[in-house]
Design a protein that fits this description.
Length: 357
């Protein structure tokens, strides 16, 4: 042993190494899961019920030798089951909803896709650590935009209309009667479309500064049959048009903005007198030490890879981060002129704030 080698505690080192091995297994599991999604292997396996590698290869039209290796990796990770007697692989109902059932509230494929996007963009983010520059949202690979939508849409579908909007003071009644709504940083428009479907008497304006996302949002609105009461436009949060909005929403995007105070100030100036600003943000405690858990690790990591660089690529570049916490978010909203801010709802992953003048 060299003289410089640090003195380590054997038990603590063993524990840490064990955790790292588990994490590395998980990192490989994510890429296996993503490939299974892209190649339709989980869906096919779920449909066949129990299959040998030959049967799954035949059903998917994929090369059997690779399919066999992928199946073994998944079974070793507990993502699917393996019966040694029959040499067949299968999925339990819980595995099927997690890996194969697109749109199910428990399907994690959007999550996996967003993680893979981080790996694909690692070199760009490594570079901004050195330069201190920002990395615009639009400079990420397309996996991020699709993964974000796939991950958040089921959360919005499960909570937005039934829980979050009713928790806001007097908003559901206005939406039922016919209100004017703006959804800022709407991305592919999943939140806008869910609201437009539920409240056909109201008009929903979706704004985002990322043109390809707005194109997607328009196409999805047509597919969902809500083209008549949705209008999507490429606009910056600090300069979207119109006034007299009864409700303005931002879903998981305020912390991505370069100038969240400026954007919130513009929102206040566009609201009607009794208008409401609803902000959905990642759940977080107010201090770093409150966020020392796996979800905190996930959010801080996405924030490192995507949110902080996206904010720094814009004027002001505040870089709030995805774990800002309610106290810091309230300061931002107060500075913009919102005097009443309260938490109206939360899920294990998100908090919902209501801000009023
Ligand atoms: C994490 S995504 C969330 C998208 C969508 N709200 C959702 O929940 O699926 C953040 C979005 O904010 C948009 N965005 C960031 N800064 C913006 C700004 N200053 N003006 C308009 N949109 C912005 C990005 O283009 C991106 O679509």
């Amino acid at each position: 042993m060299s003289e410089q080698e640090p003195k380590t505690d054997g038990k603590q080192l063993e524990q840490l190494q064990g955790k790292v091995v588990t994490d590395v297994a998980g990192a490989m599991g994510v890429v296996m899961a993503y490939m299974g999604d892209q190649l339709g292997m989980y869906k096919a396996l779920d449909e066949i019920n129990a299959a040998t590698s030959e049967q799954l290869a035949e059903k998917t039209g994929l090369a059997e030798r690779y399919v066999r290796e992928w199946l073994a990796a998944n079974a070793a990770g507990g993502y699917i089951n393996y019966d040694a007697k029959t040499e067949r692989f299968s999925m339990s109902p819980e595995q099927a909803v997690t890996f194969a059932k697109e749109g199910h509230a428990n399907c994690m494929q959007g999550f996996f896709q967003a993680v893979v996007s981080s790996y694909l963009d690692e070199s760009k983010v490594t570079e901004v650590f050195r330069s201190g520059a920002g990395l615009p949202w639009s400079d990420h690979n397309g996996c991020l935009f699709c993964g974000t939508e796939r991950f958040f849409r089921p959360l919005y579908a499960a909570n937005l209309v039934d829980t979050w909007i009713p928790a806001l003071s007097g908003v559901r009644e206005k939406l039922e009667a016919g209100a004017k709504v703006a959804d800022i940083g709407c991305g592919h428009g999943s939140s806008t479309i869910i609201m437009a479907k539920a409240f056909p008497n109201s008009t929903f304006h979706g704004f985002d500064f990322h043109a390809p996302s707005i194109d997607q949002a328009k196409a999805r609105a047509r597919d969902a049959g809500v083209a008549a009461n949705t209008i999507f436009e490429v606009k910056n949060a600090a300069a979207f048009p119109g006034g007299g909005y009864d409700l303005v929403t931002i879903f998981d995007a305020l912390h991505d903005m370069g100038d969240p105070v400026g954007a919130s100030g513009h929102i206040l100036s566009c609201l009607s007198d009794e208008g409401t600003f609803m902000i959905v943000e990642p759940i977080a405690g107010d201090s770093v030490e409150e966020n020392m858990h796996p979800l905190g690790q996930i959010y801080y990591s996405f924030s490192t890879m995507v949110c902080a660089p996206a904010s720094k690529a814009q004027p002001v570049g505040l870089a709030l981060g995805a774990q800002a916490g309610q106290k810091r978010l309230t300061e931002v909203l107060n500075e913009a002129g919102f005097s009443k801010v309260r938490r109206v709802a939360e899920t294990p992953t998100n908090m919902v704030l209501e801000a009023r003048a």
